[in-house]
Every structure is written in structure tokens, then in C-alpha cells.
Amino acid sequence: MRKNILFLSLIALFLCAFQRVSAREVVPFNDGWEFKKGPFSGNALQTVMKWDGKWEKVTLPHTWNAQDMQRQVASFYQGEGYYRKRFTFPESMKEKRVYLRFEGVGSCAEVYINGYLAGTHKGGYSAFVCELGPQIKWGKENEIVVKADNTARPDVIPVNHNLFGVYGGIYRPVWLVTTEPCAIAVNDCASSGVYITQKNVSKKSAEVTVKVKVDNASLAPVPVELENAVYDAEGKLVKRHVQSFDLTPQGMKCYASTFKMNRPHLWNGRKDPYLYKVVSRLSSNGRVLDEVVQPLGLRKYEIVAGKGFFLNGEKYPMYGVTRHQDWWGLGSALTNKEHDFDLAAIMDIGATTVRFAHYQQSDYIYSRCDSLGLIIWAEIPFVNRVTGEEWDNAHQQMRELIRQSFNHPSIYVWGIHNEVYHPHEYTAALTRSIHDLCKTEDPDRFTAAVNGYGHAEHPVNQNADIQGMNRYFGWYEKRVQDILPWVEGLEKKYPWQRLMLTEYGADANIAHQTEVLGDALNWGASFYPETFQTKTHEYQWGVIAEHPYIIASYLWNMFDFAVPMWKRGGIIARNSKGLITFDRKTKKDSYFWYKANWSKDPVVYLTQRRNVNRERKNTSVTVYSNVGVPEIYLNGQKLDGVRRGYTDVHYVFDNVTLAEGKNTLKAVVRAGGKKYADEIEWFYNGERTRKADSSVNEHEHSGW
User: Fold this and answer.
1) Which of 419, 477, 503, 538 is catalytic?
2) pLDDT at position 10
3) 528/509 Cα distance (integer angstroms)
């Protein structure tokens, strides 16, 4: 009898689940596309001939810039490209609402169905939705055409390709979304239509409000029930609220449920990224019309000037990296596999926070940060220059970022701009206006604006909750060690300022090596030794770690990335400040510096493993070890004289004399009954000096 009851219960659950899924269907729409790249002639006959010519078969995601933007300098295609797909919508969908949801098109898009314009969008990084509506030919073949254009233009941010390239094409996935006429809003800035806020979060209790936007596309009111329910990580119902009302067809409506949760399980960063689930369900006469599931991580973020970042009332270390989304050979047309790879590296290094720069990134990666416990900074691509024409678009892209990403507990701040200045009055006014937009849309999160200048009184500063500053001491200006008087000066003069060091570091071409280094390097020269990057990060992280006035720091960058306008450091179209090479194959020495300092995983690492052909017979050996003081063996002989470097994982052996020819170095640490070791080989064949231009730029650098 009990088995029969169990069987019937399972059947009922299955039917209920099937009913809920069938109410809203979201399916990939990425196969079967054809592509044709411009430019197209202004001559109508030539345009028709090219249009009717051969099309390339592609699968989305796709970009036309994966090669030219990464391998050529200032010589890549920016312009129009067309995608088309033929698709038959079955008669069974006739009573449904049908949408295409584009996760990202670079950078301006027009969508047509059967020759009719279905929608447009300006901005290469936010999602957008087009409702296909009455232009569908049910049961017949339909032609969908998407025009993409990544031409830089003054009214769409970013207004140029100077700091990074905007890859053209439908470079993120597309989804076919079908709903009932009455549904949770699909086209509210391509958001989920559900907005979860939390107040007074503590270990004792939390107040949660779930706001749902609903829409009726029929021609009569419909009696509906809106259920909002909170489930714990095991699927157990925690809270539930149901309200009934007549949903009229006159515009989008908004309804809210408020819960008080006692003794909640808090989302606590990497240590315990606990997630509840909020299910919003719209029903009518017992039939489920629509259902949306969103994450809920209960947490409290606080920033105290001069003291640091606090998560749930406890000080939290903000070990920060930045990430550009593009990959070598793929551009920005990534799958979840590439996103997962990048996140695995970020987790491995021990980072606790990520600045996703300089634009809205995949919603998938934000979701993964929710479940991994990474605290993240999300921003719009208002970077590098202002034109005076981007006001509306900057507001649009920020509104889309906030609404589409509203429910991710991992996000703590909305980034407004990065290194934009003249005209100062316009830039400051635009920053203040976007800050106000953020506080209207989402009053519970911080805002931030980033300046390349190192002084608080710059005229575009102090218009957001957090003041970010990008400082490249030793690289673009002054000397590596000048970070110390800079931060100490700000601490003394502006103790009230909530400051973050939002970029720092140096380029590193792993083919360039030298042990002969000064305290500054001329970035305008062609020699970018990896060892200088290592020196910069060793010293500057040592300073950052001792100064809680720097509330969070974000090294630039986790990965090398494409800059199609640059030719620097012996690599075409590349910013090589990453800790990992563009192809994701080589982790530079600086990667292991941060892993030793940040990660709980054991690290014993000998530096300069690629600086194989040594220049000096008398040299030094550096080891990173977070498991204890290392023993160093040179050609089997133990070395003496270890000293501590800039942090407690930094060990240096000075006055090491190499033998002629091959030298084997081995680092060994015995701890907790285990042996940790690393080994490299160097070669010495006489004194030599590789040329590194160590000239110092005494002027302040403010960005590009």
C-alpha cells in the first residue's frame, strides 16, 4: 500500500513538474544559422548580389573578429554582419507569446522576422528581448535576420576600441522563450521579472521581499494566483505567500510578498556560499501559467572607511582580480566551458573578489560566482573617453545591468565608469546621474567610479559610494616603491574616503627575461620582462596587505587579453598584464605569488623558472612557501642565509654562486608529516646583460 502511495505521489509530482515546465519553455536557439560579413555596398545591385551569394553556416555563439582583432594592429573589421535562420513555429504555439532572448550582440543589433522589424538594441554586453508577435507564419517557414554592427559610435558605450575591442557578432547564446498570454514579465529589460531584496540581515533573522512583475497580453482580465515561495538548499519549503487578483491587460503590474526568516543560513563568501531558492509561480484556476526560479543568498555587505570590507558583520579579506572575457582564438564567443576554466583559475589562486571589467559579462558567470562564494563587482563599459552623446545609452546599459543581475547575491557594487575625464563637468554630472539611477533601481548596493589619477580632489571624483583609483607605479609612472607614500598620503589627508585600488600591476611577456632590474620600466620600449612584473607584485601586494585603508584591491589582470589598437612588448594587439597568458596555457610567476599569499592550498614555488640563461654568476633565489621556511639545494648542496621578503610566504636566498653550465635548484619544505618540493634548472655561461630600459616617468599617469 505504501509503495502504491509513493508511486502515485511520484506520478503526481511528475505531472505537476511537466505542467509547470510546459507553461514557460526556454530552449536554445543557436543552431542552423547562416552568416555573411559586410561591408555592403551602397549600390543596390551590388548589395543584392552579395546578399544572394554564399552564406557561411555557423553555430552560435559566433564572432567575426576572433582572428583579426587578436593578430593585427588597428586593422580589424568593424561594421555590419548579418545572421539569418529559417525556422518553423508549430501551430501548437499559436496561442503563446514568443520571444527571442539575445544574451549579447556586439554591439548594436536589429532583429527582423519575415522582413518586419521586431526590435533593436544598442550595447554589446547586456541581454535584450524581442517579441516576435503577429509576424510569425504559424506552421510555415519563417526567416529571422539579425543585423549586428560593432562600429564604434559616439552615442553607444564604449565609444571606441582603445582599451579593448568590442567583438562583432552574436557572441553569446540566443534563447527561444514561449509563455502563456498571462506571464511573469519577459521583456522588462530582459530581466527575470522577479526582484528580491533583503533587509536587516543577521544570524537571528532577515526580511525578504519578492517583487514580481506580471503581464497580460489578452483582451480581458484574468483571475490569477501569484505564489512566492522560499526553499532551502535541500528543497525544503521555508516560507510561502499566495495572493489572488484579477490581472488586467492594461500594462505591466507589480506585486510583492514579504517574509521574515528566522535564524537564516547566511551566504558567507567562499567559506559557505549557501543559497536558498525563490520560486515565483503564476496560476489561474489551478493551472500553472508561468514559473521563474531565482537564487537567494542572505548576506550583509558593509564598508568602513579606513578599516575594510565586512561580510555579515565580520571583516572579510578582499583578494581581488580582474577579468576580461575574451580568449585567444575564440574572441568573446565563449561557451560555459571557457567561463568555468577562468573561474577555476580564479578560485585556485585564492581570490575572494572579482572585478568583471569593463562591461557586463555573462549571466552564467555571475550565477557561478553565487555558488562559488566570490564577491563581485559588475560594471558598464563607460570607459576611456566621453563624447557628450552617450548620456542616454550609459543610463540604458546601467539599468539593464541592474535589472538583469539584480538577484545575484555575489554582486556588491555597480561600477559606473573607468578613467573618463574631459570635459570634467559633463563627466561628473553623468556620473552623478548614473549613481542616482543605481540608487533608484537598487538602493541596497554600493556604486563605484574609477579614476586613473591618484588624488582624491580630482573634479570627476567623489560622485559614487566608492572611489576607485588605478595606479601603475613603476610601470606607467614613478617607481615600484612609490605606492607606499601614495597610500600613506591619502590615509592622512582623506581618512573618510572609501578607497579601492582598482588596478595595479605591469605587463609581462614570458619570452622576455632578465635578472637585472631597476625600480621602473619604460613601457614604451619593447622589452617587457616577466621578472619586472613579479617584482612589482611582490612589493606592491606587501604594501596593500599592510594598509586596510585600501578596502579592496584588484590586480590587473587575471588573463592577458586583446587590445587591437596596441603594439607593445613584442606582442601584437595584446595587453600582457595577466597572471596567465592569453591562451590560458602558462601561469606566470606572479600567479604563484598570489596563490601562496591568498590560498589555503600548499604552495612551494621557485621563481624565474623561465629565466633559464642566467646573467650573473652571483645571484639570488626566491621561493614562495605558505607551508613553512624552505630549504634550498643548489646542485645538491644546501644553501644558508634565508631571509623573509615582503610577506610571510616570501623567502629570499642572497649571494648564491652558480656553477658553470647547468645548475639544479630544489626547494623543500617538510610540514605536517608531508614533503613539498619544487625544482628548476638554470644555466650560467658567463656574464651578460639583457637590455631593459629602466627610465622613470616622474609625471602622473591617468589612463588612456
Assistant:
1) 419
2) 39
3) 5
Please report where in the chains the cell 645538491 appears, as a residue.
636
Eight-class DSSP state of 659: P
* Residue 163 clears pLDDT 60, i.e. is over it: yes
The DSSP-derived string for 276-324 is: EEEEEEEEETTEEEEEEEEEE----EEEETTTEEEETTEE---EEEEE-
Quick count: other Cβ atoms within 10 Å of Cβ 702?
15
Average pLDDT value for residue range 365-374: 98
The position carrying cell 585603508 is 549
pLDDT digits (tens, 9 = 90+) for 170-217: 999 999 999 999 999 999 999 999 999 999 999 999 999 999 999 999
- In degrees and rounded to multiples of 5, residue 97 shows phi and psi of -95, 135
Nearest CA among 75, 200, 178 for reference residue 132: 178
pLDDT of residue 704: 66
Q: 161 in the Ramachandran plot: left (φ > 0), alpha (ψ -120 to 50) or beta?
A: alpha
Residue 34 bears catalytic tag: no
Q: Which of the 8 DSSP states describes residue 57?
A: E
Q: Is the pTM of this model over 0.85?
A: yes
Three cell numbers, residue 354: 572579482
What is the pLDDT, as a whole number, of residue 50?
84
Q: Are 702 and 421 in contact (CB under 8 A)?
A: yes
Query: DSSP strand E in 430-560: where?
Result: 446-451, 466-470, 499-503, 550-555
Distances in Å between the Cα of 138 and the Cα atoms of 89, 131, 142 are 5, 15, 8
Q: How far is CA 498 from the centre of its chain?
A: 22
What is the share, in percent, of the chain residues with pLDDT greater than 90? 92
CA 300, CA 206: separation in Å to the nearest integer?
A: 10
- Which distant-in-sequence residues (6+ apart) come within 8 Å of 585 by Cβ? none
Which H or E element spans position 177? strand 174-179
Q: Is 228 exposed, middle or buried (0-12, 13-18, 19+ CB in 10 A)?
A: buried
SS3 readout for 326-380: CECCCECCCCHHHHHHHHHHHHHHCCCEEEECCCCCCHHHHHHHHHHCCEEEEEC
Query: Model confidence at 9, in pLDDT bands (50, 70, 90)?
Result: very low
Please state, in angstroms and rounded to a whole number, the distance separating the CA atoms of residues 671 and 630.
Answer: 10
pLDDT at 21 over 70: no
Going from the C-alpha of 115 to that of each of 136, 137, 146, 571, 672, the distances in angstroms are 11, 12, 11, 45, 71
